[in-house]
From TrEMBL:
Family recorded in the similarity comment: Belongs to the UPRTase family.
Activity regulation info: Allosterically activated by GTP.
Annotated organism of origin: Sulfobacillus thermotolerans
Top-level lineage group: Bacteria
Protein name: Uracil phosphoribosyltransferase
Keywords noted in UniProt: Allosteric enzyme, Glycosyltransferase, GTP-binding, Magnesium, Nucleotide-binding, Transferase
Gene name as annotated: upp
Residue ranges of every copy of the Phosphoribosyltransferase domain listed in the record: 4-205
Binding site for 5-phospho-alpha-D-ribose 1-diphosphate: 76, 101, 128-136, 197
Pfam families referenced in this protein's UniProt entry, alphabetically: UPRTase (PF14681)
EC assignment: 2.4.2.9
Binding site for uracil: 191, 196-198
InterPro entries, alphabetized: PRTase-like, PRTase_dom, Upp_B, UPRT, UPRTase/APRTase
A GO molecular-function descriptor: glycosyltransferase activity
Pathway(s) it belongs to: Pyrimidine metabolism; UMP biosynthesis via salvage pathway; UMP from uracil: step 1/1
């Protein structure tokens, strides 16, 4: 299920990310700010455990996150979304999943993964800024489910209808939170209008 996060600040940050004049530093800053905004709706149902908290004046009830969140940035573009989540969620685990797109076939190739021993009961957030063909997100979800993850959601910055369709067909149980649903993919698999290559824009490899 696709959830397009509708907030005025989401629109502002995404406009700055889209502009071709936006340099690497500004791109990273606005990507982090935008990711923080996406973390709130994506974690609306986060389970909490009540705890006792002592203020300087009295004892009261507080809360902690019940199960540590596992963030899974898809390398390399997903890295830019980690900081925004970590800013707002205490004590996260970051597990990396290395995938790249074969430029000829547009198919995702998995080359690296690093997960804690038991994360299966934990909420898993797949961070994939550009949901283009949906190939890498589908492959990542196949992998996470095969590893036993049961509570997974995807957070992306810009999605293409083609990628959303593929994800809904292959993983109808997974919610996808996105800042923007764009028009289409071009013949090279880039999202139009999009923002270009999210990895290159973050790391200056344009
Ligand atoms: N990946 C990107 O970084 N940009 C696109 O437009 C599509 C895939």
């Amino acid at each position: 299920m696709l959830i397009v996060v509708d907030h005025p600040l989401v629109k502002v940050h995404i406009s700055i990310l889209r502009r071709q004049e936006t340099g690497t530093d500004a791109f990273r800053q606005h990507l982090t700010a935008l990711t923080r905004l996406l973390a709130f709706p994506a974690l609306q149902d986060l389970q909490l455990t009540p705890i006792s908290v002592r203020t300087p004046l009295a004892e009261t009830t507080g809360y902690r996150v019940q199960k540590m969140l596992v963030l899974v940035p898809v390398l390399r573009a997903g890295l830019g979304m980690v900081e925004g989540f970590r800013d707002v969620v205490p004590d996260t685990v970051v597990s990396h999943l290395g995938m790249y797109r074969d430029h000829r076939t547009l198919k995702p190739i998995r080359y690296y993964s690093n997960f804690p021993a038991s994360y299966h009961d934990h909420p898993v957030i797949l961070l994939d800024p550009m949901l283009a063909t949906g190939g890498s997100a589908v492959d990542a979800l196949d992998y996470l489910k095969a590893e036993g993850a049961r509570n997974i959601r995807v957070v992306s910055i810009i999605s293409a209808p083609e990628g959303v369709k593929k994800l809904e067909e292959c993983h109808p149980d997974v919610r996808v939170y996105t800042a923007q649903l764009d028009e289409r993919l071009n013949e090279l698999g880039y999202i139009i209008p999009g923002l270009g290559d999210a990895g290159d824009r973050q790391f200056g490899t344009v």
